[in-house]
Amino acid sequence: MDHFEYRDGALYAENVPVADIVQRFGTPTYVYSAATLSRHYRVFDDALAGIDHDICFAVKANGNIGVLGVLADLGSGFDIVSVGELERVITAGGDPARVVFSGVGKRVDEIERALEVGIACFNVESEAELACIDALAQRMGVVAPISLRVNPDVDAQTHPYISTGLKENKFGIAIDRAEALYADAAVRAGLAPIGVDCHIGSQLTTLSPFRDAVGRVLDLIDRLAGRGIELSHIDVGGGLGVCYRDETPPTPAEYASAIADMLGDRPLKLILEPGRVLVANAGILVTRVALLKPGTAEDDKHFAVVDAAMNDLIRPALYAGWHRVVPLQMNTHGGQTRSWDIVGPICETGDFLAQGRELTLAAGDLLAVRTAGAYGFTMASNYNARPRAAEVMVVDDAMHEVRARETLADLMRGERRLPFS
Ligand code: LLP
């Protein structure tokens, strides 16, 4: 459930007409609903009631300080993949002691900063990284809490670009190598192996890949316990899917109970790294129709050119992502009813937000791209020298600019001509 709904034909974000947000902040603009965010967090957290757990929101899904602040206030921990994300969490008021650090290529300076602020755990993805963290921790006179991110070789049955748990993917440590590496980690003075981690992919719409992966990881935990290596947590990553179109992903309650059943009575804390499921439906991308380019022949395409583009939301271009597109105002005018391709102004054929959508459109109309709160702004770029969109958070009947639209000066910050030219 989310808090974007029509009232008398006008789209509202909570108690604010989205058109009012446009009037104040222009387009393209990402609009988030704080109530939706809180609701999603609480539903997820409630589903885990009775299980010792920690929710570590995957910052890569939405790193806006306003969004992270709402989640931090709700008690969320965070999953990060860079020092940039770590600083965002700290700035937003998140607790570094509730941060887990994933990623295949952590740099020395990133590891040092994470050790300095005392994060909860490093999710280690290679033997080389294990040795590096050990050396840095010893040099700093600390002990690094670590888990190995194991690759359980499970097919997540999602888009290949967002599958991570197959042997052929670059992520994690092959599960059959993990036992030996834990034994190695256990005798290194700079490391404290405290958990095990896996993440098999994103936008999963069935439970079976999760069950397969968790089953394999639990077998590993049991084998390690047999060797005297007792781990205290299992991190199952993120990946729970959402409904963009007609998908029917498991509910948080179904997901939680499937995992809880598998954990049984093992004394393990459960860490989860949800991203999309918490934020996707808490955000929309609002855009204005710049002009219409209807075709003339029978089989011609009809293009509605809007002021948002693939640099603002790359999911359709990159993963064939499907996002619902709806008008901000229903049934107002004598626009043209066609099957429109909603395209941006960027010079790429892949620059579309949606294709073949039956809509009644006129130039100047405002549209909302739904389910854009995850991997929307965080994947935005300045391609074609386009300033990145504004981000606005609605709280009940108030709108807060949580990131100002970039200016043309922002685009050129730090650049200069050669000194001798
Ligand atoms: N933990 C790790 C280690 C991850 O790599 C990811 C996502 C997550 C947690 C959160 O997964 P989620 O709950 O959001 O599925 N840009 C793509 C998605 C890439 C996901 C990358 N890793 C998209 O727009 O579909």
Q: Which key terms come to mind for this protein?
A:
12 helices, 21 strands, 8-stranded parallel β-barrel, binds ligand LLP, alpha/beta, Lyase, Ornithine Decarboxylase, Chain A, domain 1, 9-stranded mixed beta sheet, single chain, globular, 421 residues
Overview of the molecule:
Strand 6 (77-80), helix 4 (83-91) and strand 7 form a beta-alpha-beta unit. The longest helix has 19 residues, at 208-226. The protein is globular and about 75 Å long. The strands form three sheets. Strands 4, 14, 15, 16, 17, 18, 19, 20 and 21 form a nine-stranded mixed β-sheet that branches. It is 29% helix and 26% strand. It folds into two domains: 4-31 and 280-412, Lyase, Ornithine Decarboxylase, Chain A, domain 1; 34-276, Alanine racemase (TIM Barrel, Alpha-Beta Barrel), CATH 3.20.20.10. By secondary structure, it is of the alpha/beta class. The N and C termini lie far apart (58 Å). The structure holds ligand LLP. Residues 58, 60-61, 79, 102, 162, 199, 202-203, 237-240, 273-277, 315, 319, 374-375 line the site of ligand LLP.
